[in-house]
Queue: 2 jobs
Job 1
Amino acid sequence: MNGFLVGGQIGCNLWQSDRWVLGIEGQAAWANIDGQIGPFLQLATGFNTFRTEADAIGSIAARLGYAFGASGQGLFFVKGGAAFIREQFFVSNHQDPIFDIQSDKDWRWGWMVGAGVEWVLVTNWTIKAEYNYNHFGSRDVDLCSSIANVCSRSWGIKQDVHLVKVGLNWRFTGFGGPVAPVAARY
């Protein structure tokens, strides 16, 4: 699978001790991710192509970071938590269009881990880059014909998604809005 996503995140740093920072964040994105494998020859049905489309993906995670730089303006971090994706699966047969079958769009939950770096550009703006590995496990999916009112057997689907993301963040430092830090802290 490959494609792109556009989304947002919200989070907060809950605790900081010296250069260690602990926080939580939620991310959600509209996605245009798809991929296919095949065609494969299957003796019973001929040549089949398997395809997946995802239109939303996100996570809810805890984040642990270590601030670096002379005034702590950089942050290396690792994170982990729950992941979700909204996707649909397809199987097409090249000899028999009645065998073109698809699943309903469905939300799937799994887990994720990630790592990245964030850098303070100016007082309240940061830029970040991160990698996330999302594991959605295995499950059986029923696929039905888009032409005939016929459903196929269940297909076993195992899914992992690798994401590379870059972002620009606005940091709030209190309920009164952004203010300049009193001490150099991430």
Note: The first strand starts at residue 2 and ends at 17.
Job 2
Amino acid sequence: MRWWSLIAWLVLCFAVAAIGGRWTAPEIGGWYASLRRPTFSPPNWIFGPVWTLLYALMAVAAWQIWQAESSPARTLALAIFLIQLALNLGWSWIFFKQHAIGAAAAEVATLWMAIGATIVVFSRIAPLPAWLMVPYWAWVTFATLLNVAIWRLNRAL
């Protein structure tokens, strides 16, 4: 039973990845390629491997919290995790489908705060799941800076 719940968390996280990818992939060669990007913008090929690892780490972290004894703290932790996962998906829609770079910058800042909250509540239950979320938080910190820089460079578009 315990491994089935890990599979469920992996399916959930990678479903979010797949939906976001469907919104993102068609825009990479056209709209996104037309944007001015800062010098610290990584090559496009790096995003797939990084996000694959991050979604896997998120799923394992959530699964470990799921395995903890049922409590209001566990319920809150998983609720905040699901909120940040929804915000993660929302960013892809706002940035890539709506081309609303400024709104995406505000949304990713909200996502960043939600990930931080997830780490805090996870840490109250078990340290390892909280630590598994840290690379994701670091990447979203970078993504926030990248999003803001792209917005600043393309405000006139």
Note: The mean pLDDT is 96.
